[in-house]
UniProtKB/TrEMBL annotation:
Record bears the keyword Transmembrane: no
Pathway(s) where this gene product acts: Amino-acid degradation; L-proline degradation into L-glutamate; L-glutamate from L-proline: step 1/2
Protein name (record): proline dehydrogenase
EC number annotated for this UniProt entry: 1.5.5.2
Protein's organism: Streptomyces pyxinicus
Cofactor(s) essential for the protein: FAD
Residue stretches making up the Proline dehydrogenase domain: 45-299
UniProtKB keywords: FAD, Flavoprotein, Nucleotide-binding, Oxidoreductase, Proline metabolism
Catalytic activity field: L-proline + a quinone = (S)-1-pyrroline-5-carboxylate + a quinol + H(+)
Length: 307
C-alpha cells in the first residue's frame, strides 16, 4: 500500500529537501549507497571483486534541470572510469547510467543525452568494459531504446534494461533477444498507470517469467536483475532448459540487499554482478529502495524517531 505513496514522494522537491536534510538519514542511506565520492568507492570495488563478485556502477542522480548538470554527470562517470583504469578489472566492473541524468528530459534532450552518454561508452570500451542504460519511467523508454540502438552501431555490447511490469516489454524482449545484445530484466521500480503496466505483484511475476523465457531462448545475453528467490530458481531452470552455460547469463542484485545471496551464487560459479550506487544526489534511488520493502521504511522512520 505504501509503495505508491513513497514513489510519488520520490519525485517531490519538497520531500527531497526535507529528507536529504534529516540528521540521521545518511546513516540509513549508507546501507544502499556506500559512498559519496570516487575515493570512497574504489576500495569497495577492490574488496568486492576480490570476493568473486562483479559490479555495475551507478553515479546517483536523475531528473536534472540544466545542461551543465548533464555535463557534470558525464564527467563524474569519466572520472570513475579513469580511476578504474588502473585496477585493470575489465568487464568485471561495468557502468549503469540513467539517461535523465544526461539531460534526456531537457529541451533537445534526446540528442543531448546521446551526446553526453557516448563519451562514457567510449571510455568504458577503452578499459575493456561496457555500459548498460537503466530503464526509467515509461515515457522515457522510446528515447532510451533509440539511443541504445544508436550506441550499439559502434559499441554492440552496450546493454539496456527492460521492466516486466510494462505491457510493452514482451515485444521489446523479442526484438532485443538477438545475438550480441545484453539485456537486464527487472520487475520495474517506478509508479506506472494501469494503462501501461501490471499493478499486481503476481501479474508482474508471471510476466517476468514469460519475458525471461524469451531472453533465455534467444541469442542475447540475459542479465537477471532480481532478489526474488523464486525467480532466481526459475532463471536457473530456464537457463538449463535453454542449454546455456554458466557464463552465458548473469545474476544482478543491488548493493545492500541479500548480500549473502550475492556470495552464494558467486560461490556456485554464477556470474553475480552487484549494482553499486554512489554519490551525493541519492534521494530518488534511496526512495525507490524504501518503496520496494515496507520494512525499510519502518527502519528509516524508527531511526529518525530515536534520534
Ligand atoms: P521483490 O519481490 O520486490 O523482492 C524480492 C525479495 O528481495 C524481497 O522479499 C526482499 O527480501 C528483497 N528485496 C527486494 N527489494 C528490497 C529492498 N529495497 N530492500 C530490502 N530487501 C529487498 N528498476 C527499474 O525500473 N529500472 C532499472 O533500470 C532497474 N535496475 C535494476 C538493477 C538491478 C541490478 C536490480 C536488482 C534491480 C533494478 N531495478 C530497476 C529495480 C527493480 O525493478 C525492482 O524494483 C527491485 O529489484 C525489487 O524487485 P525484486 O525483483 O528484487 O523482487
Amino acid at each position: 500500500m505504501l509503495g505508491p505513496v513513497i514513489l510519488a514522494a520520490s519525485r517531490s522537491d519538497r520531500m527531497r529537501r526535507l529528507i536529504s536534510a534529516a540528521p540521521v538519514t545518511k546513516q540509513v542511506v549508507d546501507r544502499f549507497i556506500p559512498g559519496e565520492a570516487v575515493a570512497d568507492i574504489v576500495p569497495i570495488v577492490e574488496e568486492m571483486t576480490a570476493k568473486g563478485l562483479e559490479l555495475t556502477m551507478d553515479v546517483v542522480g536523475e531528473d536534472i534541470t540544466t545542461p551543465e548538470q548533464a555535463t557534470a554527470a558525464r564527467d563524474a562517470y569519466l572520472e570513475l572510469i579513469g580511476r578504474l583504469k588502473g585496477l585493470e578489472l575489465g568487464e568485471k566492473v561495468e557502468m549503469s547510467v540513467k539517461l535523465s541524468m544526461f539531460g534526456q528530459a531537457l529541451e533537445g534532450g534526446h540528442e543531448l543525452a546521446l551526446a553526453n552518454v557516448r563519451p562514457v561508452v567510449e571510455a568504458a570500451a577503452a578499459i575493456g568494459t561496457t555500459v548498460t542504460l537503466d530503464a526509467e519511467d515509461h515515457t522515457t523508454l522510446d528515447s532510451m531504446f533509440a539511443i541504445h540502438e544508436e550506441l550499439r552501431k559502434d559499441f554492440p555490447q552496450t546493454g539496456c534494461v527492460i521492466q516486466a511490469y510494462l505491457f510493452r516489454t514482451e515485444a521489446d524482449a523479442r526484438r532485443l533477444a538477438a545475438a550480441g545484445s545484453r539485456v537486464r530484466l527487472v520487475k520495474g521500480a517506478y509508479k506506472e498507470p494501469a494503462e501501461v503496466a501490471y499493478q499486481q505483484k503476481h501479474e508482474i511475476d508471471k510476466a517476468y517469467v514469460r519475458i525471461l523465457r524469451i531472453l533465455m531462448e534467444g541469442e542475447g545475453y540475459p542479465m537477471i536483475g532480481s532478489h526474488d528467490p523464486r525467480l532466481i530458481a526459475i532463471a536457473q531452470e530456464l537457463a538449463h532448459q535453454a542449454g546455456r552455460k554458466l557464463d552465458e547469463y548473469e545474476f544482478q542484485m543491488l548493493y545492500g540487499i541479500r548480500g549473502d545471496e550475492h556470495l552464494r551464487l558467486a560461490a556456485e560459479g554464477h556470474r553475480m554482478r552487484v549494482y553499486t550506487a554512489y554519490g551525493t544526489d541519492w534521494y530518488g534511488y534511496f526512495m525507490r529502495r524504501l518503496a520496494e520493502k515496507p520494512a525499510n521504511l519502518r527502519f528509516f522512520l524508527r531511526s529518525m524517531i530515536s534520534k
